Amino acid sequence: MKSIAPAQRNEKNWLLSALSDELYALVTAVSETVPAPYKEILVVPGRPLEYVYFPLGGCLSIVTVMKDGSSVEVGTIGWEGMCGVSLLNGIDQVPTRCIIQVEGVVKRITRKDFDALLAEHGELRALMRLYSQAWIDQVGRAGSCNGVHSVEQRCARWLLITHDRVETNELPLTQEFLGVMLGVRRASVTVAASALQRAGLISYKRGKITVLDRAGLEAASCECYAAMSEAYSRLLPIEPEWIKTRHDVHASSVRNRTYAVA
Amino acid sequence: MKSIAPAQRNEKNWLLSALSDELYALVTAVSETVPAPYKEILVVPGRPLEYVYFPLGGCLSIVTVMKDGSSVEVGTIGWEGMCGVSLLNGIDQVPTRCIIQVEGVVKRITRKDFDALLAEHGELRALMRLYSQAWIDQVGRAGSCNGVHSVEQRCARWLLITHDRVETNELPLTQEFLGVMLGVRRASVTVAASALQRAGLISYKRGKITVLDRAGLEAASCECYAAMSEAYSRLLPIEPEWIKTRHDVHASSVRNRTYAVA
DNA sequence: CGAGAATTGTACGAAATCGCTCACAACAAA
DNA sequence: TTTGTTGTGAGCGATTTCGTACAATTCTCG
Fold first, then answer.
1. What mean pLDDT comes out for the span A123-131?
2. Is strand C within 7 Å of residue B45 (CB)?
3. What are A198-247's pLDDT values in tens digits?
4. Per-residue pLDDT for B109 more than 70?
C-alpha cells in the first residue's frame, strides 16, 4: 500500500488532508463549503449525483429506502470519508439515500469537477480507492451485524461510530431518528437507550444523547464496532494531528487491533 | 457509462466474456481453471489474497466471521462477478471469508498477474469498477435486508439470488448451511423452508433444494431480491447469449425495473 | 401565556426467533 | 449388514422485538 503523508494544514476532512499540496490547491479551487442541516437529503436514490461531499464535521448516513418508506442505514460517513464513491467507479447514480445524520459542514465538489480531477490525478484515485475499500468493509460488517446482534448492541455500536465522527460528546439525535437508522421501532430504541442510560454509559434528553463512558459503551456494543474501526485505521492509517486532541477516540479502541485469522 | 460489448465466445463468466479479444487472450494466458468443491474456503480474513476468482458455475459466498465462530453472509458471487475486488483498490487483504456456496468451477489468476493486468489495461480497470459498484450496491442492500425482513423472506431472496447463479433448478444446499448464510438457527430455516415447500414454491430433501416456482418465490421474498437484481442488470447491462437459454431468470424479474425515486 | 408539535415513557398482547433437546430418516463407510 | 454421520422434523419455554396505543413532558411559536 502506498504511504500517503497528510500535509499539515487545517483541513478537517481526512481524505482532503491527505492530499499533496498541489492537488489540495486544485481541489480547494473547485470546492465549496456549505452547511449541512439535520435531516437534509444530499443524494436521492436513482437520481444523478450533483456533487460529492466531504464532511468537515457532523456526519452523513447512507440509507436504503424500502418501498413502504421505511429505511435502514447502510453506513456512516464523517470526517474520515466522503459521499460519492460511485463516481470513482464511473457511476453517477446509486440506489441509496444520503441524509445528514448529525448537522455540520461539508465541502462539496460538482460531479463534473470531481470527474475531471479524478481523470487527471492518479494520487486522487489512489486515495479514493483506499476509501472505497474501507467503505465496502464497513458496509459489509454493518450488514452482518444487522442480522445477528441485538438492538441494544447495535445501538451502542451506532453511537460509537457516530461519536467517532463528531467533535463533542453530545450527539444531537432523537430516538425516533435512531430507530430509523437501526431499522427498528422507536419504542425499541427507548428500551435500549434507557438500559444504556441506567448503566451510566450515556445520558439523553429530548434529541440530545451524551456519551458518558466510551469504554463502557464499547463493552456494551458488539464486536462489530471494533471491527469497523479497525477497517478504517488499517486502510487509512494516518490521522491528522487535530483528531488526537479530541476525546480519547481511537486511543482506547482503534489501535492495535488485528483480525482473528480463521 | 462506457458501453462494453462482450465478445461472442464460450466464456461462462460475465466479466471475462465482456473483455476485448486481445485482453481476453492475455487474461486466459495467466488464468487457471480449477474445481471449487462445496464449503472450500478460498479467502481467509486478514491473510493476503493469493488469487482472484472468476466463477464459471456454482457460486461463492463472502461472509463475516464473528469471534464466536458464527458467520453471516455479506454477498454472493457467481458467473456475473468475481472475488477480489479489493485488489482493484490496491488492497490485498480483506476482513471477510470467501467460501464455496454451490460447488462449481472457477478461473483463478494470481494476485501478481492480476495486478499487472490491472496496471496495464484501463479496459480491465473500467470493467472492474463497474463490478465494484454493483458489489457495493448488493452488499448494502443485503445488509439492510438483514435488519428488517423476516427469515422466510430472506430465505426466499437468498434462494433466488443463488438460483440466478447456477444452471439448474436444483441447489445443493443443506438447511444448516443456509442457516449460516442467513445468520439464523437451522431450526428457523426448517420452519421457513417448510413454509415455502408447503406453498409449492420449492421442494427439498437432504441437501438438495429444488426451485419449483420462481415467480412464486419472488412474491414470497422481500423487495430486496428485485433491488439486488436490478443493480446488476443496470450496471452490467449486457448478458452473454447463453444465459438467456437457461431458466427464465431475468426474463421475469430483472428487466424493466426502476428505482423508486424518493 | 397558551396552543400545538415534538420527544420520550410505558404498557400490552402478538409474533418471531432463540437455544436447546430429542427423534428419526437417509446416506456412507466399514 | 452394521455402524456412525449427516440432515431434517418437531417441541419447549425463554427472550426479543413488533405493532399499537396512550400519556406525560418539554420545546416552539404565535
1. 94
2. no
3. 999 999 988 999 999 999 999 999 999 999 999 888 887 666 555 555 54
4. yes
The answer for residues whose C-beta is within 8 angstroms of residue B245's C-beta and 6 or more apart is none
Q: Which of A72, A70, A65 is nearest to B260 (CA)?
A: A65
Residue A34: φ, ψ to 5°: -135, 150
With a CB cutoff of 8 Å and minimum separation 6, the contacts of B190 are B175
Q: What is the pLDDT of residue B232?
A: 87
Cβ of A90 within 8 Å of Cβ of B132? The answer is: no
Find, in chain B, the residue whose alpha carbon is nearest to that of A98: B262
What is the rounded CA–CA span in Å between residue B191 and residue B175?
10
- Kindly report the bases of strand D lying within 7 A of a protein C-beta atom: 6-12, 16-21, 26-27
Minimum-distance CB partner of A47 among B1, B75, B261: B261
Report the candidate in A162, A147, A172 with the shortest Cα–Cα distance to residue A225. Answer: A162
Q: How far is the alpha carbon of A211 from chain B, nearest alpha carbon, in Å?
A: 25
Does position B129 have pLDDT exceeding 80, yes or no?
Answer: yes
Q: How far does CA B201 lie from the centroid of its chain?
A: 22
User: Which B residues, 3 through 42, put their C-beta within 8 Å of a C-beta on chain A?
Assistant: none
The span from the CA of B231 to the CA of B207, in Å, is 30
B236 pLDDT band, cuts 50/70/90, is confident
Residue B147: partners with Cβ closer than 8 Å, 6 or more residues away: A72, A143, A146, A147, A182, A183, A184
**pTM score, two decimals?**
0.90
Residue type (1 letter), A237: P
∠ at Cα B249 (B246, B252), nearest 5°?
A: 130
CB pairs under 8 A between A and B: 169
> Who among A64, A126, A223 is closest to B144 (CB)?
A64
Q: What is the DSSP letter of B15?
A: H
- B residues 144-173 closer than 8 Å to A (CB): 144, 146-148
Closest Cβ–Cβ partner in B1, B47, B90 for A90: B1
The pLDDT of residue B242 is 53
Give the residue from B94, B202, B182 showing the smallest Cα distance to B142: B182
The contacts of residue A247 (CB under 8 Å, 6+ apart) are A163, A169, A211, A214
Pick left, alpha or beta for residue B98 (phi over 0 → left; psi -120 to 50 → alpha; otherwise beta). beta
CB B210: neighbour CB atoms within 10 A? Answer: 13
Q: Distance between CA atoms of A203 and A216, rounded to whole angstroms?
A: 13
The answer for B 91-110 residues in CB contact with A (under 8 A) is 91, 94-97
Cell of B165: 447463479
Nearest 10 degrees: Cα torsion B250, B255, B259, B260: -100
Span A19-46, mean pLDDT? 94
Identify the residue whose Cα has the smallest distance to the C1' of C19.
B185
With an 8 Å Cβ cutoff, is A258 touching chain B? yes
